[in-house]
Write a structure and sequence with these properties.
Length: 85
């Protein structure tokens, strides 16, 4: 997401709106504080984006094995379900 100042957007609003329409998003800052976020009114929801991502994985036959992905992330400490003896 692009960062712009309030001054920048007020000087050339139509330019930034064209960029938003083309798919860009902006966070507007005033005095180094974010005051607004500008995105396309036709942007997809996170659920739509996730569905598209899942469809892409399925269409490309990418097999993701969560045990393999997270093998080095999980805590190997013994638990009551998995004692160390």
């Amino acid at each position: 997401m692009n960062k712009i100042t309030l001054e920048e957007i007020t000087q050339d609003l139509s330019h930034y709106l064209q960029r938003v329409q083309a798919g860009e998003s902006f966070v507007v800052f005033e005095a180094n504080q974010p005051i607004a976020q500008i995105t396309s009114a036709q942007s997809e929801s996170i659920l739509d984006a996730f569905d598209k991502f899942r469809e892409q994985l399925n269409s490309e036959a990418i097999d993701l094995d969560s045990d393999e992905i997270f093998a080095h992330v999980r805590d190997p400490s013994p638990t009551p379900e998995k004692p160390c003896w």
